[in-house]
Structure formats: structure tokens, C-alpha cells
Amino acid sequence: MHTHEVPSYLAKDNLGPWEIYLEQIDRVTPYLGKLAYWVETLKRPKRILIVDCPIQLDDGSIAHFEGYRVQHNTSRGPGKGGVRYHQDVTLSEVMALSAWMTVKNAAVNLPYGGAKGGIRVDPRKLSIHEIEKLTRRYTSEINILIGPDKDIPAPDVNTNELTMAWMMDTYSMNQGRTATGVVTGKPIALGGSLGRRDATGRGVFVAGAEAAKRINLSLEGARVIVQGFGNVGNASARIFHDHGAKVIAIQDVNGTIHNTNGINPHDVLDHIAKTGSIAGFKDAEVIDPKDFWELETEFLIPAALEKQITAANAGKIKAKIIVEGANGPTTPQADDILSEKGTIIIPDVLANAGGVTVSYFEWVQDFSSFFWTEDEINKRLEKIMIEAFKGIWDVALDKKVTMRTATFITACTRVLEARALRGLYP
Ligand code: GLU
């Protein structure tokens, strides 16, 4: 790995996923031609806001939570990207996630830059009332950065439609007018879009199906293993299942379940709704979480957190196609090991772009106050995903690079073209 200049606000030993992102930028630079002149602009986020969010807990005491909003790039439009609540959130992680949003939005040609937010908190330890207070305080603290034409947050890990409702309401109260377009991923009753909930999973499926077509792999009976059963993992599993594929293993924080005859993800969802956890699902056996990676399968869908596929387990992975539902699940070293073996990796910045694509539709609908049918949304989503996939697949063949580098070539070219045209101010 190259050594990179470390921004003064980051501890040298805590680069985390930001280091992975920089390595990805190094890998694409030789393919950027004259635009490489501008590549340094991608190696620094445009704006970083660190906020303290104090809230009164239910027991009367005060707790402080550190929050972030990072706008990585706004060359092509306002900042766009989710907000995550997790006990391990760090600035360097949010920086990397914001940069991946820049690449993702450009890869599928949405008129957005890239941004991301997060709060270092374990939401399982807070009551719903405390989470609402935290969300409202965080929204007020980042109020100076966000807005329908400035930076538009959305759900991510451990945030959902309800979180977005509170964010929209808080921003609107501060502005003195209802501004539905300030966040996406809202409930339908507040200007949310039909199809947004399953959009990321639908995009993961479309990307996986496009890759399968190109290697003559039939979806009928194709085996699928999924890590993570949140919004992305469960929708991906359901949609693959509904198209004839066989989900044979699911892993989440509570364990790993496996059944070579197939697991019905709809039943797993029902089980979780009843018991709160994947544990105890009766139509599958529990296996060691480490064995998950070595299962014989056609598709592997990481849909949880970063750095899950590393040099330590990449060599054992048997999947033909990896569709990255999560952001940043694969390290550059693992990328090399897998592409050497001929595994197709559809990178996060393409594979999971379905979510932000339907966020874009939601934002457009909010601006025009005219709402589309679910069928129309799904068709437009599929069209964008298929066209982006095709363009990037062709770049990969043409330049003899991985799908990840091809996606970065396509996206970084778009971002840097805009950068070059705008010029440096002043
Ligand atoms: N958090 C999602 C992502 O990582 C969605 C972002 C959005 O809809 O703005 O792509």
C-alpha cells in the first residue's frame, strides 16, 4: 500500500476505511489521462463538521454523543448520502463513506456530490425517546450544512424512515416551513417515495443478475449467501429468492444460519418480527460464523459493515460473483486475491447505488410535488442500474481492469470533468 499524506485532524493510526479509499484512488489515477491533474481534489473532503450532541437521558442524566457530517465533493451537485448510528463510527470512516458517495452518485450519473454523516452511539442502548432527542439535536447541529439544495441526508446503518421523519421535522421547524426535500428515505406520508425501502436490495439484485447473464449463470437455483439482514441484506435476499435463486445462508450480529436446501427469507423476516433476532429460526442449522465465507455458492452478498472480506478470508471464498450491498466490505488486498482467482466483484459504488437512485427520485418528486407509481419507480431504477452496469462492464473489458477500477474510472472522470470545467475559485 502507498503511504498517503495524513490530514492533521486524523490520528496516524486511525485511517480506517479512508486508507482503503485512497488506495482505490491510486489505482484509478493512471487511467484518468489529463484529468489526473485534478486527482488531489478527491483525496480531501471539502467540508467536515464535528458536533457534540448532548441529550438528557430518561433517567435525568446528561450524555454526550459525537456526530459528524462530511461533504466530500460538490462538483456535480449538492452533497448526498446517509447518516449512520453505530458505536464504532469515527471521522475517518465517515470521510471514506462520504467519498464513496461521490463515486457512487457519479457512477450512476446522479446530479449529486457525495456526503455522509454519523453519530458514535450504540442505539440498542437508548430508548426510542432518547434516539428521537439525539436525532433532533444532531439535525439542529448540522443545520448549517444541510438543505434540499445543499446536502440531503438519508438512512444508513441503524437509521430508518422514522429517523428521517424526525430529521425532516426538525429542519422544517428550524426553517419555519415544511421542507420535505431535505432528507430522503422518509415515510410515504411525508413525501417519501414508493419503492425506496427495497431500492438498494433491488439494485443489488439487478447488478447481480446482469453479471450472471454475462457468465451464462442461470439464476434458477443459484445459491446465494448474505451477510447482514438489515434493510439491504433482507431486501436483496427476498428479491433473489423471488427470482428463483436459493438463499442458503444468512449471517448477522446474532449468528449464522445455513440450509443447503434453501432458506425462505420472508420466513426469516417473520421470525425476526416475532422474536427480534435471526437466532432460533427453525428451518436452518446454526454454523460457526467463520465457516460462512467458505460455503459453496454462486453469489455472496456482503450487506453489513466495512472490511469483512480481507486477506485473511478472501482466499477461501468460493462465490463466483460478489455483489457488495455494504459500503467498503472488501479491502484492496482481498480485491487482488479474488480477482486473481477470477471472482467477479460488483463494487459497492455500483452494486448498492439503487438506494440513492430512488432517493434521487424521491427528491425530484418532492420538488415537483408530483408522485410516481411504484412500477414507474422500479422500471426507472432498473434502467439506470442496467445502463450503468453495461457501461462499466465495457470499460472493464476495454481497459482490462476490475469492475471496481472500471467504476472508479467512469465516476472519477465525471467528477473531475466537472471540477476542471468549474475551475479553481478564486
Ligand atoms: N446510505 C445509502 C448509501 O450508502 C443511501 C444514501 C442516500 O440515499 O442518500 O448509499
Hetero compounds: glutamic acid
What separation lies between the terminal Cα atoms? Answer: 35 Å
- Second-tier CATH architecture of the domain at 199-351: 3-Layer(aba) Sandwich
CATH topology of the domain at 199-351: Rossmann fold
Question: Helix share of residues?
Answer: 40-55%
Q: Pairing-aware structural class of the strands and helices?
A: alpha/beta
Number of helices: 13
Mean pLDDT comes to: 97
Oligomeric grouping of the chains = single chain
Shape: globular
DSSP E strands, number: 13
β-sheet strand percentage = 15-25%
Name the strands of the widest sheet in spatial order: 10-9-8-7-11-12-13
- Computed Rg: 21 Å
List the secondary-structure elements in sequence, H or E. Answer: HEEEEHEHEHHEHEEHEEHEHEHHHH
Unreliable sequence segments: none
Largest sheet: 7 strands, mixed
CATH class of the domain at 199-351: Alpha Beta
The fourth-level CATH homologous superfamily of the domain at 199-351 is NAD(P)-binding Rossmann-like Domain
Concise account of the structure shown:
By secondary structure, this protein is an alpha/beta fold.
Key features of this structure:
426 residues, single chain, Rossmann fold, 42% helix, globular, binds glutamic acid
Task: Chart the SSEs and their pairings.
Layout: H1 17-28, E1 47-56, E2 62-73, E3 79-80, E4 83-86, H2 91-107, E5 114-120, H3 128-141, E6 151-152, H4 161-175, H5 199-214, E7 223-227, H6 231-242, E8 246-252, E9 255-258, H7 265-275, E10 285-287, E11 299-302, H8 311-314, E12 321-323, H9 332-341, E13 344-346, H10 348-351, H11 353-368, H12 374-399, H13 403-422
Parallel strand pairs: 3-6, 4-5, 7-8, 7-11, 11-12, 12-13
Antiparallel strand pairs: 1-2, 2-5, 8-9, 9-10
Helix pairs in contact: 1-2, 1-13, 2-13, 3-4, 5-6, 5-11, 5-12, 11-12, 12-13
